[in-house]
Amino acid sequence: MDDFVRDTLAQAGLNDLIKVFKDEGIDTETFYMLQDADIEKLIPKMGSRLKFKKLIRRLKVLPSTSDTGKRKSGQQLGSKGQPAAKRKCETNSSTETEAKMLNTVRNTMGDIYAMLQDDSDLNKILKTKIKNLETEKKELVGVFGKTGAGKTSLINAVLKEKNLLPSGSVSACTSVMIKVEGNRQNEKYEAEIEFISPEDWEDELGSLLSIIKKGNQETEDNVDDSDEEHHDAADKLSALYEDEWKEKSCEQLMETKYFKEIPEFLCSTSKTLVFESAKDLSTDIVKYTRDAAKNEDYDKIKKWYWPLVKCVTVRVPDNPFLQHVTLVDLPGNGDRNKSRDTMWKGIFGDCSTVWVVTEINRAAAEQESWDILKNVASQIGNGGECRHIHIVCTKSDDIDDSHELTKAETQALILKRNAKAKLSVGKELNKLDKIKKHFSDECFQVFTVSSREFFRKRDLNPEDTEIPKLQEFLQNLNDCHSETLNYVSGAHGILSLIHGANLRKEDDRIKEVFEALEKNLTLQTKSVNNEMMKIFKVFEERLQEGVERSKNSYGNILTSTLYPRKRDGRGFHKQLKKAVENEGVCRPKKGREMNINMNLTSPLTDSIDEEFRTTFPNDGKCGPFKGVIYGFSILTKELKEKYKDVELQLISLESEEERLKISLNKSIRKRKKTVYRSLAKTIGETMQDCYNSKKYIYIMLLQ
């Protein structure tokens, strides 16, 4: 067995076949010589056999990439055991090869599209199919952690762009969502600033001034002035208006003179900034992204616009890690502004990977990061599409008195602590039973990284910083190879349809094939319906159990929510009041959120969590509904052998079948999130009358 065969099987999720192929001496040449009879003997299990047949069918469409007629092993994203430099070289080579291949096929399909001049029914179908070949794949990687944990430094290191995102002082924290993606349009660095609407800001402005007024009244009454919400409101107002807000009304603060530098805000359009270098971009976007008004590093900046910003999208040219991946720097627990919070929830729910960033010296004990993970577990799990959760322990090179040690001693000390940290975090993960309901053990991985050492290279080798491991992970997420396979396979189907349409067939023969396909469709549909009914009955039973549990426990849930143990009375009642005013949810800047709706929903979600995860898995190994859709096909082996004279039409039909299954799986993934979240949404809507009742709030606050 050679690297190509091993890597191809691994990338396709067929690791169980590697030993079989190795024992049978299958190399690249014999791999492409495998016939159906050989595959039947080699792979007795139906599931693996179907997956392999689909894989080899697609690979045979692609032209070879070397003079010998064999594909180079570097076409896959690095085989284990090879030096990192060699893997990188092979990966770059394969990426360039596939990019050229994809471009060639796209040009061919473009030429065919241009030739379809008349508006016949067939030409309309072909034009639609060619347009549908273009599918943009984007994997979202959400990055979150407490202020000062090193999120932006981590992103800069992973992308090999030391000066890309503003980082440094602990007192200056990222305050808005930042998305980092590849710039595929030009060679410039770009930043697109998306603002909240003027109407949203006016509403928020009124709330901020109200909070300040209420806080001032409490101060006059000699009440403790440590209210987090009061200080946050003052920081936002001071950032944008300096001290002028203290003497102005809400209406005056909405005057256009305060927004001269950002006319886009008043027009509800985005602002795009273009730069020649990453450093220039970093310097200019600080005022749109970071709460750093009191920081000496930025004393030249007088106006800070981050309170008005909804999101900043940074585009980086020529970066191999961002071909089909977007990194998202997510601030804290969400946002009190409704439009920002809606975007925050949406992004979290769409993340296929989450990086929980925490400092290594307190990785296992750091409560804030664990709290955020607990808060969002259901949103990214059954209510989302997350497949990977990485606990990234940063600043692994921070060693006391390291200047007194030799490089070898420092390195040994760092690596020893790294291993200890991984064990501690692993033990902590094992305690998170509720989170484990949404994810399998394979989803979790721990990294110990040093962004500073990755660039500095003083005490650690690059591999020991573990930044290359995260880079390799992003390379695999990019998965350019599958994009090429999907496009070329679809193009093959279209070409088969065109050639098949030009070959005249006897009407009786066509009718016979149609009847055979229709019969198979009926049988396959019946099989799908049977499986759906089984799943429906299971969910009906689980939900009924959850309803009974809810009836018996809602009183205890409300009591524990309204009167928790070990909580300061005054501080808790302020938090409870905020939750009631905010439709049942209070998100403090630090610590766990209070979510009355989710607490009341928990008996229902607990009853279906495990079944929901197996029915709608995020990992995509077998697909939704326990693989019944993935296994659906009206094209049997016997049918293909019997009707070889219409082979081209059957190839086209098979390609269309695959396209429909991919599209259906995407649709199911999107809709399953809506279904899961509907439980909490329904309870929130039911509770709305209670939240709107001033009498209800008053009674609670008197308890």
Automatic annotation (TrEMBL):
Asked if the record carries the keyword Coiled coil, the reply is: yes
Coiled-coil intervals in this record?
Answer: 116-143, 636-663
Q: Where is this region: Disordered?
A: 65-95
Q: Which residues form the signal peptide?
A: none
Cite the entry's keywords alphabetically: Coiled coil
Q: Name one GO molecular function term.
A: GTPase activity
Looking at the record, the residues that make up the Dynamin N-terminal domain are 141-376
Task: Give a yes or no for keyword Nucleus in this entry.
Answer: no
UniProt xrefs under PANTHER family: NUCLEAR GTPASE SLIP-GC
Know the name of this protein?
Answer: Dynamin N-terminal domain-containing protein
Species name: Poecilia mexicana
Q: What is the lineage of its organism?
A: Eukaryota, Metazoa, Chordata, Craniata, Vertebrata
